[in-house]
Amino acid sequence: MTDDINDIIILGSGCAGLTAAIYSARAGLRPLVLEGGRPGGQLVSTSDVENFPGFPDGIDGFTLVENMRRQAEKFGSRFDGASVESVLLDGEVKTLRSAAKTLRTRALIIATGASPRLLGIPGEGDFFGGNGVSTCATCDGAFFRGAEIAVVGGGDSACEEALFLTRFASRVHLIHRRSAFRASDIMAKRVAEHPKISPVLDTTPVAVLGGADGKVRALAVRNVKSGEEREIALQGVFVAIGHEPNTKVFAGKLPLDAQGYILPHPQSGLPHTGVEGVFAAGDCADPVYQQAISAAGSGCRAAIAAERWLEEHGR
Ligand code: NAP
Questions:
Q1: Are residues 172 and 225 in the same domain?
Q2: What's the whole-number average pLDDT of the chain?
Q3: Which of 38, 53, 255, 281 is the right S-S partner for 111, CB 3.0 to 4.6 Å?
Q4: Rounded CA gap, 188 and 183, in Å?
Q5: Tens digits of per-residue pLDDT, 130-180?
């Protein structure tokens, strides 16, 4: 770091950002990690991580990410709670602005992750956050003890949420718009065999319905084959239909694909982006794999690429 210009700023403090921090801190670059609006990223709301190598008995997501943060701090990473609102990526020094401050850096690693997608149906927004609609089973599941609930989605996230919610709910309706789950075999099998989970296939939600008490009372659904509509009486709806990359701040500043994922540099490939000195890691640049371990691996690559880039540019 010279004056107020950082060598490396890392945006995001999930698996990718923290791994990048561990590597660049060990390279002596004293990275500054801007933790953003959701410190720790998606892992902090993941109950059991069973597929991160090195943990044969699984580990809860919060502990895993907390360990990574301590490891990054131990080697000299610095942390700041700022959320970046605008960026200037042209030129040798990049400028990042949050509500409270302006920061400058030579190399930038973007690891801003992805956020849960919503259904966009009537009622969803009205009951979101405390009144019956949620995107986080580990955060809100305990509020639905003994209740009947629905999980919407057919991927690994939906199956994982449904299985976790059986700890509290009396019944979990797992609503998917196709006739088969897209989740991995092991997850789909666990769901199919669970006595508290009722798969509702070929079905899509059309509205979240509330009662006089301002809480969810039912989910209106439509069978996509027959067109028949009906209501499922329940108290909670958990939406688990994938994620959107957190890259809005980079629109027009970096090449993004149609969904907003950061595109690789045409020649060097990821972690290089289309802008010199700017690197990307984790789910914000990965529409395909989106795993904790692949995010961590890409964070490692981004840190090494950034370190080499700084060396080549006289740092
Ligand atoms: P995903 O695999 O993209 O699945 C999203 C699901 O939501 C799909 O079944 C999709 O239906 C459905 N969907 C999307 N938009 C919808 C809409 N508007 N209305 C109704 N349904 C809608 O996303 P994910 O489950 O979050 O998983 C993302 C990645 O993370 C995957 O690679 C997954 O393997 C991984 N992951 C792994 C674990 C684990 O290993 N334990 C846990 C969680 C996630 P269609 O099938 O019709 O497209």
A1: yes
A2: 95
A3: 281
A4: 6
A5: 789 999 888 789 999 999 999 999 999 999 999 999 999 999 999 999 999
Out of 48, 60, 126, 136, the active site residue is 136
Concerning whether 3 is annotated as a catalytic residue, the answer is no
Taking the CA of residue 178 as reference, the ligand 1 atom at the shortest distance is 47
- Considering the domain architecture, whether residues 77 and 122 belong to the same structural domain is answered as no
- Could you tell me if 197 and 294 lie in one domain? no
- Residues 249, 308, single domain; the answer is yes
Distance CA 32, CA 88 (A): 17
Q: What is the CA radius of gyration of the chain?
A: 21
| Dist. CA 253–CA 271, nearest whole Å | 16
Same-domain pairing of 135 and 180: yes
Q: Taking the CB of residue 112, how many other CB atoms lie within 10 A of it?
A: 32
The last residue of a domain, from among 208, 239, 270: 239
Print burial letters for 162-172: b (CB count within 10 Å at least 16), e (below 16).
Answer: bbbbbebbebb
Question: What's the mean pLDDT in 119-138?
Answer: 91
CATH of the domain at 37: 3.50.50.60
- 42-65 pLDDT, tens digit per residue, is 888 777 788 899 999 999 999 999
pLDDT band at 38 (very low <50, low <70, confident <90, very high): confident
What is the tally of structural domains in the chain? Answer: 2
CA distance 105 to 102: 10
Residue 150: give the domain boundaries. 118-239
Region 207-234: mean pLDDT is: 96
